Amino acid sequence: MRDGGAIVPAFWWDGHPNFGDDLTPWLLPRYGFAPQYREPRAARLIGVGSLLEFAPPDFTGAIWGTGLMHDRARPLPAATVLALRGPLTAERIGLREEVPFGDPGLLVARHLPRPRSDGRIAVVPHGHHRPHELLDRRVHDAGEAARVVNVHQRARSAVREIAASRAVVTTSLHGLITADSYGIPAVWTTLDPPLGGGDFKFRDYEAAVTPGRTRFREMGAALDEMLDDVEAPDRARVIAMSDALEAALARAHGLPLGQRPFPSGVLQALRGR
Questions:
Q1: What residues have CB less than 8 Å from 15, skipping those under 6 apart?
Q2: How far is C-alpha 41 from the chain's CA centre?
């Protein structure tokens, strides 16, 4: 961390607010940046989320761990790619050089200690699946063994709720990523209505963190049944990916991102969010 810092015009989509949207402004101050919201064309750094469709084709800023929402080509030849969510996004944007893969949400465990586990299953529905009759029924059937995490809250609160669980069932990608950050067994599933882009973002992320293995499960008769034989990703791999994401962001301090000195006291306040 730096005592000073820099303003970086960042972009994160807040059309459907959820804790994943809050991860970029929550993480950046911990690495010496004070993020400011910008529309895509004016942004100089694009971070956490499925955001690359929003970037103009001539985008010249930096990309850090973000990905595409849809499984289709989206060349971004002028961008500085620090890291990408996964190899499928790399293919679709026509990237030729090697870059680190992984979602920056993997870094949350480095900044928020895991609370004591409550021994329950955290059910993390995407905002489009709250409420959802079938999912609500499964949670009700589980009784005290499960609880629902509201994704429509700030990153710190949602992360703590997920981190306190023994296992995770999610239709939200960042529910899965948060579980992986803490080494918590997790599965992802799909419900109606389908998410924009379908399962592409999940496949992209898993191609990086669990190559050749998916944790997708059909919505089963019971939450515990969905979690049978599920293991968290290899811990050494998650640590290596997290190290690479931090090193990639450190490169941004040397890029022309429109930075200017920022008072250390404000950065410290942002880190405490």
A1: none
A2: 22
Q: Which residues of the chain have pLDDT under 70?
A: 1-6, 11-17, 258-272
Nearest residue to 238 (alpha-carbon basis) of 177, 167, 188: 177
- What confidence score (pLDDT) does residue 253 get? 87
Phi first, then psi, for residue 123 (nearest 5°) are -100, 120
Q: How far apart are CA 201 and CA 186, in angstroms?
A: 16
> What are the residue ranges spanned by the domains of the chain?
6-106+238-271, 108-234
Report helix, strand or coil for 9. strand
User: How many CB atoms lie under 10 A from the CB of residue 121?
Assistant: 24
- Please state which CATH class domain 108-234 belongs to: alpha beta
Q: Under a CB-based contact definition with an 8 Å cutoff, are residues 35 and 262 in contact? A: no
Beta strands 121-124; 6-11: pairing state? unpaired
Residue 86: name the closest of 7, 260, 202 by CA: 202
pLDDT number for residue 266: 52
Taken in order 200, 204, 206, 212, the sign of the CA dihedral is positive
Rounded Cα–Cα distance for residues 24 and 64 (Å): 10
Amino acid at 255: L
